């Protein structure tokens, strides 16, 4: 499935998530998707984005790890359905929005947390989502710079 379609699906699921367990599952799903997109971009994306894409995958993986939660009864992760990235710019624009939504959801969960472990896990996951979103912004900036640069002429 196309990355943008998966991102839109994740954003909808996150927006309609019910209680804390459902929201944490959707945050996990979104971070797994960000990790898969980062890994794919690192392998087949534009060469100038590959370092940031690797960093994105690492940060999203950290966000998954600190939550210490796998999706409950949801079958395979949504990220496993990723078959193509499609337009890199559109993919990154949507992914940045998803990561922003993840941060907002985690703030809500952290504020309502009954125990310190959940609170601090959310704080760490918020940091990972914010840093991942920064990587996405850096990649979008590099794409814009590349498009704004005048085309090179080869010597004849």
Verbal overview:
By secondary structure, the chain is an all-alpha fold. It is 73% helix and 0% strand. The protein is built from five helices and no strands. The protein has helices at 3-15, 20-44, 50-67, 88-112, 116-148. It is elongated. The termini are far apart. 38% of the residues are buried.
In whole angstroms, how far apart are the ends? 44 Å
Low-confidence stretches: none
What portion of the residues fall into strands of 2 or more residues? under 5%
Structural class: mainly alpha
Order of helices and strands: HHHHH
Query: Which radius of gyration do the C-alpha atoms yield?
Result: 17 Å
What general outline do the C-alpha atoms trace?
Answer: elongated
Q: What's the mean pLDDT score?
A: 90
Percentage of residues assigned to helices: over 70%
Number of strands: 0
Determine the number of helices (DSSP H or I, runs of at least 4 residues).
5
- Largest β sheet strand count, sense and barrel closure: none
Which tags fit this structure?
156 residues
In short:
The chain is mainly alpha-helical and 156 residues long. It contains five helices and no strands.
Task: Spell out the blueprint of helices and strands.
Blueprint: H1 3-15, H2 20-44, H3 50-67, H4 88-112, H5 116-148
Helix pairs in contact: 1-2, 1-4, 2-3, 2-4, 3-5, 4-5
């Amino acid at each position: 499935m196309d990355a943008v379609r998966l991102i839109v699906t994740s954003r909808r699921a996150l927006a309609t998530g019910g209680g804390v367990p459902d929201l944490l599952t959707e945050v996990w799903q979104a971070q797994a998707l960000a990790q898969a997109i980062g890994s794919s971009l690192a392998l087949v994306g534009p060469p100038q984005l590959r370092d940031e894409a690797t960093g994105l995958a690492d940060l999203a993986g950290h966000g998954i790890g600190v939550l210490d939660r796998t999706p409950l009864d949801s079958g395979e992760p949504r990220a496993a359905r990723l078959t193509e990235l499609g337009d890199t710019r559109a993919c990154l624009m949507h992914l940045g929005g998803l990561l922003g939504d993840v941060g907002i959801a985690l703030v809500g969960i952290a504020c309502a947390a009954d125990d310190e472990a959940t609170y601090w896990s959310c704080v760490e996951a918020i940091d990972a989502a914010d840093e991942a979103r920064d990587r996405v912004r850096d990649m979008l900036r590099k794409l814009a710079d590349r498009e704004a640069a005048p085309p090179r002429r080869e010597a004849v």
